[in-house]
Amino acid sequence: MSVDADTVRKIAHLARIKLPEERVEPMKSELNNILGWVEQLGEVDTSGVEPTTAVIANSLRWREDEITDGDVQEKVLANAPKPMHGFFAVPKVIE
Amino acid sequence: MTDYRIQGETGEWEVVIGLEVHAQVTTNAKLFSGAATAFGSEPNSQVSLVDAAMPGMLPVINGEAVRQAVRTGVALNCEIHKWSRFDRKNYFYADLPQGYQISQFAHPIVGEGEIIVDPVDADPATIGIERIHLEQDAGKSIHDQSPEFSLVDLNRSGVALMEIVSKPDMRSPAEAGAYVRKLRSILRYVGSCDGNMDQGSMRADVNVSVRRPGGELGTRTECKNVNSVRFVEAVIEYEAQRQVEVLEAGGEIKQETRQFDPAQMITRPLRSKEEAHDYRYFPDPDLLPLIFDDAYIEACRATLPELPDTKRTRYVEQLEISPYNAAVLTAEQETAAYFELLLNETALKQRKEARAVGKAAANWVISDLFGALNGLGKSITESPISPSQGAELLALVADGTLSGRLAKDVFAIMLETGDDPAKIVEERGMKQVSDTGAIEAEIAKVLEANADKVAQYRGGKDKLFGFFVGQTMKATKGQANPQVVNELLRKALGG
Amino acid sequence: MSDLTNLTLAAMRDGLREKSFSAKELTQAHIAAVEGARELNAFTVETPELALAAAETADRALADGAAKPLSGIPLGIKDLFCTEGVESTAGSNILRGFTPQYESTVSANLLADGAGMLGKLNMDEFAMGSSNETSAWGNVINPWRGAKGETLVPGGSSGGSSAAVAARIVAAATGTDTGGSIRQPAAFTGITGFKPTYGRCSRWGTVAFASSLDQAGPMARDVRDCAIMLRSMAGFDPKDSTSLDLPLPDFEAALTGDIKGRRIGIPKEYTIDGIPAEIEALWSKGADMLRDAGAEIVEISLPHTKYALPTYYIIAPAEASSNLARYDGVRYGLRETPDGGNLIDMYEATRSAGFGDEVKRRIMIGTYVLSAGYYDAYYLQAQKVRTLIKQDFDRAFEQCDVILTPTAPSAAFAAGSKSDDPIAMYLNDVFCVPASLAGLPAMSVPAGADKDGLPLGLHLIGNALEEEGLFNAGYALERAAGFSAQPEKWW
Ligand SMILES: [Mg+2]
Ligand SMILES: [Zn+2]
Question: What keywords are annotated for this sequence in UniProt (chain A) (predicted)?
């Protein structure tokens, strides 16, 4: 499988990274170079093999249903590029 | 199955409906953080650094959300998955701080099940549940506060939701409405969601398509976040009609996300969600699989209350209540709870079995109490008459202290004053008179004053009997026991 | 280089307790060393005032006989760890100016044990790199130089950490290792680096690269110093769901140097084409040293070794593409909004301006391998191969206790020499990545030098949770190798 220029544009958009047009071709060959290399994994017979979920045996711990956090509006907004009346402001979204 | 049909220009169309209901799980803290979930608060105040997706923050699951999902699954007769997993659903949106929602895509905690719904004016239907999974809610964007900016509040970000996905088994707006009502009823019985649709703790994504009756499935549209039963029904009516019109005009239905406009009762495409989505689901590497055993499921099951269907059957079979009344009494947990308190007190006071007083208690709740509450605009939890006061009233009727008519008068005074019925009867002398001597004396006076009518009656004019009853009741200020009056009158006139 | 900064962490600790010098003196010596070594570009932020404040606290504790394990020890903290009130950028422009309101568990643990922070250490952007040439703060320079005086890379991504420890400007440093980012830079700079079992160190508050692989660990002068550091860094953390709820051994106590009867596995598949003869030679020498110390050398097989690197380069970018989605200009960090731009324009401009080329490339790869239609062929297949790699190790550890391999396929190379070829760069981690995929503890110990006198490391891999045996094997190797060379001070 190799990616074409349109796929590169589509992936960049999915990843929300602006890719100037002159970067599309170079990015395409960089990606194809890497993808061509990782595709050797296709030769491995993995039938009946479970994908890794937890690399070290461990089980999911459950929290108690207690309020232990929050009420830190100042900390939450401390690094905001555009805080506004306690909110994060972003360019207007039209739904 | 209903036979709901859209009559098009080219013939009949059938509508196919599936619902994805997002129900906020009743928990104190969020699904993956310790921030509070309470409704309504200062913006970004119920937000932890985890909810705001600060760099390096990690999720830790709230066990109560797991427990409530399992209890809900058991209540909906679903398969419970002892091994499930959280996946990331990746997309960018201003109120989705992580850039992904933690959800359960490939391995949900709850699998298939079903519920039985009773639409008004149609046969009961069994609606399949496809799955229930746990996921995080997003934050909220406010678009009307500033001309230039949308404002993001993350208070809801990370709140635990159960997404309850139905199979596309519904065929009419009424069926879908009944499904949402039934689901809400069960969730409230279980206590896993408060069901407050107006506060957003329950909302439905409505999937609608149309087809020729019994034909191939059509393309569906999804209307997001519909927040009342009435609106769910309206969306379906509107969408079905719209789709039929598009198809009959030779058009095609676009698989798209739409939103409901309650002001105009129409749906329209959601611009911001128009883009083709590729969510790139993959297992969340910050979490391990969610695993529990049969004992855990059984412990969850053991905490479930009697659910509405079981309760209804018991009312019909053991209390000899009519199926209709039983359905009304069990639809909401609060009603059933009131009724059962009333029933217990009534049986106790009258030293009878519940079965012997069930029908009278049911009738009183449904006709008298509901009628009064409707008039007052109050819910049963706000009833001015307590179950034990109701039971006392019923006991006064049963032991002959009050006639049916007197009981209604006492009931009205109870509503107004909140007083106990015995006190009202005592203070106002509203006791029914069953003393034969006193009634015979009054009858004698009535017959004497109406000698001509007595003669006519004895001459064969039977229907005058009612007249004598009326006169006697009037003479006793309505307090005479009507049965006793009847008997004594018959004896006196027959003589 | 003052005498004080040239001590090992253990010697500093003992000297402080014996009142040979004060924490303040020790810290001041390091602050001077940091200031004198700015040419190395090892730090993104210097925090001498924090280090001095900790030193004062330490001196009081030392005077009261209430010293903690690291009281008075001045450390460097990799910039991947969020530090409360101190700019934390993960080497990226997208986080420039970001001041966390919280302290990562690992750095908090170190501070709680009495350590002071000299500053934040430079690193490859978001820990993506093997040469420290992708940092928004510029390249880190290896204190070692080539035979002709060339500038060399310090390895990556913990290149600021490796350079600072090697240059004797910090007593020790934290590193993080996703696919070799502690071990390879340790090898390139002649220091010791230790990556514990996945889950030993909490990931809470550490900027995520690839969550299923990321592990913090110590980088220090020698094995003992790593053992001391790890003891403070590690431990159960309820805030990290993948943290291991297990008792923490006293790693230093495990350093007996006695490895008699221990079985050292030599994986035959680690003999790869193009590896310099002197690295092969060092590897066999290492085996000989361990045999001479009483260990038994056994040949083992890790048949899926050749697939480890491609597996890693699917899984790590996939997780990274999702982990880095939060850098969107909404809540912190850089925001770029083109004139009249909407929300999507803001995202795209912010992320385009904020991320460097290597990060963008990996996000693109990760996005692609997770996208509809490709998930099974790439990501799922990679996670299955990962299972096979893990099973290889499980079987190997039935035959041996510790595995010995080279750390990297070369000594430190010249800056710029591999920047144009991502795959050549990725090959740096060929020996380190398998243990990362299997979550196993592993370490690099300086064991010799190449023909130009540049340090070379040997790599030891232990079974899960068996850090003590691994540390002790490393200790035995260190003693046998006796590597003591230091870079000549030119800065
Ligand atoms: Mg949905
Ligand atoms: Zn959902």
Answer: ATP-binding, Ligase, Nucleotide-binding, Protein biosynthesis
Same domain, B93 and B148: yes
What is the pTM assigned to this prediction? 0.93
- Residues 6+ away with beta carbon under 8 Å from B37: B24, B27, B28, B29, B30, B46, B159, B160
A89 contacts in B (CB within 8 Å)?
Answer: 146, 149-152
CATH number of C2-257: 3.90.1300.10
- Which residues of chain B, if any, have pLDDT below 70? 1-2, 271-276, 495
Among B44, B259, B272, select the one facing A73 at the smallest CB separation: B44
- CA angle (B253, B258, B260) in 5-degree steps: 125
pLDDT of B271 reads: 66
Domain range for B472: 436-492
Q: Inter-chain contact C386–A52, Cβ cutoff 8 Å?
A: yes
- Among the bound ligands, name the one nearest to the CA of residue B96: 2
Q: Which backbone phi and psi does B129 adopt, to 5 degrees?
A: -100, 130
Q: Based on the fold, state whether residues B295 and B232 are members of the same structural domain.
A: yes
Going from the Cα of B132 to the center of ligand 2, the distance in angstroms, rounded, reads 10
What does the pLDDT look like over C52-87, one tens digit per residue? Answer: 999 999 999 999 999 999 999 999 999 999 999 999
Q: Are strands C402-406 and C263-267 parallel, antiparallel or unpaired?
A: parallel
pLDDT tens string C223-273: 999 999 999 999 999 999 999 999 999 999 999 999 999 999 999 999 888
The closest CB to that of B100, out of C95, C242, C325, belongs to: C325
B27 contacts A87? CB cut-off 8 A: no
Is the Cβ of B272 closer than 8 Å to some Cβ of chain A?
A: yes
Are B135 and B163 spatial neighbours (Cβ–Cβ below 8 Å)?
yes
CB-nearest partner of A50 from C212, C381, C387: C387
Q: What is the pLDDT of residue C1?
A: 46
Distance B118 CA to ligand 2 centre (A): 26
> Which residue in the list C71, C107, C130, C157 is annotated as catalytic?
C157
The distance of Cα B144 from the centroid of its chain, to the nearest Å, equals 34
Q: Is residue C489 annotated as part of the catalytic site, yes or no? A: no
The alpha-carbon radius of gyration of chain C (Å, integer) is 21
Q: Are residues B146 and B254 in the same domain?
A: yes
Contact C207 B287 (CB under 8 A): no
CA distance C88 to C82: 6
